[in-house]
Amino acid sequence: MKKVLSLILILSLLASAAVIVPAAAEGEELYYVYTANGKPLNMRVEPNKSARLIVKIPYGDEFWVYETLGSGWTYGRWANQDGYVMTRFLTKDKPAPKTPSRKDETPEEYERRKEEEKLTEELRGEKDVSPFTIAVVATRATGWINFRYGPSKITARIASYPDGKELTVQGETDRWYKALDPDTGRIGYINKNFTTVLTKAAGEEEKQPETKTPEEQHDLGKLDINGEFDLTCKLPEGYKLQVLSSRGDKIIASIQSEDMTAPQMYLSIAYDETYGEVERMNDMTDEDLAVLEDTFKELNQVEITYLETGHGTKVMVARETGMDTDFIDILAIYKGYFVEFHMTPNAKAADQRLTEEDLKTCIDFLTDVDFNPVEKAE
Q1: What are φ and ψ of residue 164, in 5° steps?
Q2: Which of 19, 293, 342, 348 is most buried (CB neighbours < 10 A)?
Q3: Which of 369, 374, 359 is nearest to 221 (CA)?
Q4: pTM across the whole model
Q5: Which residues of the chain are under the pLDDT cut of 50?
Q6: Chain-centroid distance, C-alpha 360
C-alpha cells in the first residue's frame, strides 16, 4: 500500500475548534474554490508550494479571504483552519458542481481519496466541548494508540500512547477527540474507539502517581512477569529500564536514556486469556497471525515481517517509517502474554525519524530477549 501521509501533514492545532464555516468577520471577503479539474485545493502554512500542507479544500467550498498577496497567493480561512492558497484557484462566483475524472484511478488512489473525504467531513463537523478527561484503551494486539495531527489515520502521528494514558478533551468530531496532552502541552486527535471517559466526583483529589521503593524496582534488563516467568533483555547503551505501572496481569515499563533527544522505548506485557494456550508465537497458525496483522494494519500503515530472537522465539515486527511518522513495534506471545517492545522518535528530537542506527538497536534488542521460567519453591 502506498504511503499517503505526505498528502496531509500538519493541521493548524492552535486554531480554536468551530462548527462548519462561521460568519464572516470584518474585512473578510467570500470566495469559492475553483479548480479546472475539480480536484481539492491545497492550503499550506506558508505561501510556498513546498510549505507543509494543512488540508485539502474541496472544489466549490467557501474560502474567506483575509489578504491577497502579490506573489500569487492568498491568505484566508476554511472551516476552522487558517492558511495560504494559490489565488488563481479562487473565484467570486460559486462554481457549478464538477466531479474530477476518476476513470484512471488506481485502487490506492481511490482509497486515498475516500480517506481525504472522510477527513474533510470530520473537520467540518468539529465542535468545542467543556474540557473532560479521557484515558487511552489500547487494543489487544498492541499496547499503544496513535495521537495524530488530524482526525484521520492518514495524518501524521504526533506520539503513541500506552494503555491508561490520560488526555484532556477540548473538542470532538464524529469519530475523534481533539485533546491536550498535559505532560507535553501538545494538541492532537485520538480515535474515540480507543478511549474511555474518566468521571471524577466533585472535589475528588487528583490521582497521585504510583511510587515504588528501591526494593520494589525490578533489576535493570529483567522483569518478573507476575511470577510466571522472567523476561530478560540487553538494554541499549545509556538506557535504563523502569517500571511505570504494574496492575494485575499488565506491566508497562520504560526504557529511557538521559539524552532527551534519544528515541523513546517502552515494554508492555499483558495477559490475554484468548491466547492462554499459546506457549510461543512459533506455535500459532497462519490464520491466528493474520488476525494480529489485520489489527495492526487497521490502526497504522505498517510493513510486517517476522524474525526470531537469539533464543528461538518468533516475533512479529510492525514497522512504519514514513516521511513524517516513524515507529517500530516488536510483538511476542509467550505463555498467553503479549510482550510488546515499542520505539518511536523523541518529541524533542530535531528530526522526527528513526535512523538506521535506531532500527539496528531494535533488532539487537529483540535478538537478545529471552523468556526464563520462574523456579518456584516446592
Answers
A1: 95, -10
A2: 342
A3: 369
A4: 0.46
A5: 1-24, 201-220, 377-378
A6: 22
DSSP string, 51-104: SPEEEEEPTT-EEEEEEE-TTSEEEEEETTEEEEEEGGGEESSPPPP-----TT
Q: 249: Cβ–Cβ under 8 A, 6 or more apart, which residues?
A: 226, 270, 271, 337
**Could you give the 3-state DSSP secondary structure of residue 111?**
helix
Give the angle subtended at the CA of 357 by the CAs of 356 and 358, to the nearest 5°.
Answer: 90
pLDDT of residue 204: 43
Residue reference for cell 535493570: 220
Residue 56 lies in a domain: yes
CA separation, residue 78 to residues 8, 202, 277, 310 (Å) = 15, 39, 54, 54
Distance CA 369, CA 312 (A): 10
Q: What distance in Å separates the CA atoms of residue 81 and residue 302, rounded to the nearest whole number?
A: 29
Helix (H) or strand (E) holding 64: strand 62-68
* Residues 188 and 79 occupy one common structural domain: no
Model pLDDT for residues 100-136, shown as the tens digit of each residue: 656 666 777 777 777 778 888 888 888 888 899 998 8
Collect all residues with Cβ–Cβ distance below 8 Å to 63 and sequence separation of at least 6.
30, 31, 32, 33, 41, 57, 74, 76, 77, 78, 85, 90
Residue with cell 532527551: 260
Mapped onto helix, strand or coil, the DSSP state of residue 365 is: helix
Cβ(115)–Cβ(108) below 8 Å: no
Environment class of 316 (CB within 10 Å of its CB; exposed 0-12, middle 13-18, buried 19+): buried
Cell 537469539, residue located: 310
Q: What share of the chain is helix, strand, coil (3-state, %, to 5)?
A: 15, 40, 45
| Domain span holding position 257 | 222-373
Chain centroid, CA 336 distance in Å: 26
From first CA to last CA, the distance across the chain in angstroms is: 54
227 & 334 share domain: yes
Same domain, 142 and 120: no
Strands 187-191 and 176-180: antiparallel
Same domain, 243 and 366: yes
pLDDT at 66: 92
Give the residue carrying C-alpha cell 505501572: 245
Query: Is 206 within a domain?
Result: no
